[in-house]
Design brief:
The protein is built from 13 helices and twelve strands. With 406 residues, it is α/β, with parallel strands linked by helices. It is globular and about 60 Å long.
């Protein structure tokens, strides 16, 4: 994994805006026109990689284009794509916001449905007001339920994703790129009637998804593991647990993830921590200080986390007291998915410099809070990536003592 050896490198968290034509093709896709769709997808991936390079993104992704979206606003494609790649699931569960609360073993905490999060209860008036500006995207009428032994069935899909992305990287003359995959803790946040315990189901997800992780790394790509469950489950436990109980609850998800990536090279893996990307209040987010140790227990070479939105920007100071393990990198989000305001490059540079001064300039890669695709308008998303690259250049000049370009 490349590090910022002589300047601050740039990357992002994964999802980028899909072209309208690709969204429509996904929405109307049939087996009869699969060859035409794949050609369109391959062309779109080539375009999005080329566009990242033109903007100054050093470590690009495929925009998650192989993870289908049927509308411009979509907060769940990073997760829902796995429903088509896991055998043993049946689309028979209730809607995501209608899933009943359940008690989790062995921790005995009560997990609420997505619709009963503590923030959604606290701000019920805003969430129920269509003019409040809170957006969550379309809601699927059903969620999957595990009804049989889990297996990975996405071999053809991940091969197509990898082939498309590697062709795009080669065409753009880029040596290193990353591809996202959902972690077991988040993949297992669906119904289960087959496995006896939540732990059994969690580790079955780990064994199944390992095949995708291995395929990405074996292809020479960087694997990014997306797992909002590590931080986000805090808001889905009612009543609010103690921090100690939540850490223990979350560490089982870390153990499952480490089981899934056992033997894989940590320096080819990065982990993305997230408190949930929907546009709404986040007053019940667990503080970074309380979860950073759990994050660092994951056997990854780099850690991506929110650091640009107004609920978490102040948490850069955590790194005054927390030692980043030797050989590890961080990818702080220095432009945010949570606002339509495009950050000024000077602010981006200030945010980068804070982290660089605490953990070392060579150990910082400037990134985004979360995926931009499906969260903000495409024009805004691309402007944010441009501001990210411009801010990184300003920070590099300051950190390496280079004069301004003529």
């Amino acid at each position: 994994m490349r590090a910022s050896s002589d300047r601050i490198l740039t990357s992002h968290a994964g999802s980028l805006p899909r072209p309208d034509a690709l969204i429509e093709a996904n929405r109307t896709r049939t087996t009869a026109d699969e060859a035409q769709f794949q050609a369109q997808l391959r062309s779109a991936v080539a375009d999005v990689v080329a566009r990242q390079k033109a903007l100054g993104i050093d470590l690009p992704g495929d925009g998650e284009y192989g993870k289908a979206m049927g509308s411009r606003v979509n907060y769940g494609a990073w997760w829902s794509y796995s429903f088509q790649r896991l055998g043993g699931l049946e689309l028979s569960g209730p809607g995501l916001y209608d899933v009943p609360s359940r008690r989790s073993n062995p921790n005995e905490v009560v997990l609420t449905s997505f619709g009963d999060r503590r923030d959604r209860i606290r701000f019920a008036g805003a969430y129920n007001d269509p003019e409040s500006g809170i957006t969550t995207g379309p809601r699927a009428p059903h969620t999957p339920v595990c009804v049989g032994p889990l297996s990975y069935t996405g071999h053809a899909a991940i091969k197509a994703d990898i082939d498309n992305f590697k062709a795009a990287l080669a065409a753009a003359g880029i040596e290193e790129g990353f591809m996202t995959s959902v972690a077991p803790g988040s993949a297992s946040r669906i119904g289960n009637v087959h496995y006896k315990t939540d732990d059994d189901f969690l580790f079955a997800c780990a064994d199944a998804m390992r095949e995708e992780y291995k395929a990405i790394i074996d292809a020479g790509l960087i694997l990014q593991l997306d797992d909002p469950s590590i931080a986000e489950n805090w808001d889905m436990i009612n009543p609010e647990p103690t921090v100690e109980a939540y850490r223990a609850f979350s560490m089982r998800r870390v153990e499952a993830l480490n089981h899934a990536i056992r033997g894989l090279p940590a320096d080819r893996i990065r982990f993305h921590l997230c408190w949930g990307s929907w546009h709404g209040p986040h007053t019940t987010d667990i503080p970074m200080r309380d979860i950073v140790g759990v994050m660092l227990a994951i056997n990854a070479g780099a850690y991506s986390f929110e650091a640009g939105n107004v609920r978490h920007e102040h948490e850069w100071s955590v790194w005054r007291d927390v030692k980043l393990p030797d050989g590890k990198l961080i990818l702080p989000g220095v432009v945010s998915h949570a606002t339509n305001v495009v950050e000024h490059p000077d602010l981006v540079a200030e945010r980068i410099t804070r982290f660089a001064n605490l953990v070392g300039r060579e150990r910082v890669i400037a990134a985004t809070d979360c995926g931009l695709g499906g969260r903000v308008h495409p024009d805004i998303a691309w402007a944010k990536l441009a501001a990210l690259a411009q801010g990184a250049e300003l920070a590099s000049r300051a950190l390496w003592g280079r004069p301004k370009a003529a």
